[in-house]
Amino acid sequence: MIATRVFLSIESPEFDFDSFDAIAESLLLAIDATVVEKESNADLHIWLIDFEGCRLLLKGEHYSGALWLEAMSDDDEETLTFIASLLN
């Protein structure tokens, strides 16, 4: 069995390791989400966030400039669809 993760790719301003927090905080403010936990390594930021009781992962890779929200379970696909509508 292969597990797949549902994710929402987000267009964002360019960011680097030091500016990720500001970009991520702006996104969380726009969708009214809160940070539960933060982790970062050399090129990847991973934040566990809470959006209306749903836990999601906010990930940002500064080398590629990629920013995305990732569902923790397949049941959260509707939540990502809703967040996409908020950001459009």
Quick one: how many beta strands?
Answer: 5
Helix content estimate:
25-40%
Radius of gyration: 12 Å
Q: What oligomeric state best describes the polypeptide chains here?
A: single chain
Tell the overall outline. globular
Largest sheet: 5 strands, antiparallel
Topology pattern, helix = H, strand = E: EHEEEEH
Residue runs with pLDDT of under 50 for 5 or more positions: none
Q: Determine the N-to-C terminus distance.
A: 34 Å
Strand order of the largest sheet: 1-5-4-3-2
The number of distinct helices, counting runs of at least 4 residues, comes to 2
| Amount of beta strand | 35-45%
Average per-residue pLDDT, rounded, comes to 92
* Structural class designation: alpha+beta
What's this model, at a glance?
This protein is of the alpha+beta class and 88 residues long.
Structural features:
alpha+beta; about 25% helix; five-stranded antiparallel beta sheet
Provide an overview of this structure.
The protein is an alpha+beta fold. Helices cover 26% and strands 36% of the residues. It is built from 2 helices and 5 strands; from the N terminus they run E-H-E-E-E-E-H. Strands 1-5-4-3-2 form a 5-stranded antiparallel β-sheet, with helices on one face. Strand 3 (44-51) and strand 4 form a beta hairpin. The chain is globular and about 30 Å long. The model has no long low-confidence stretch (mean pLDDT 92).
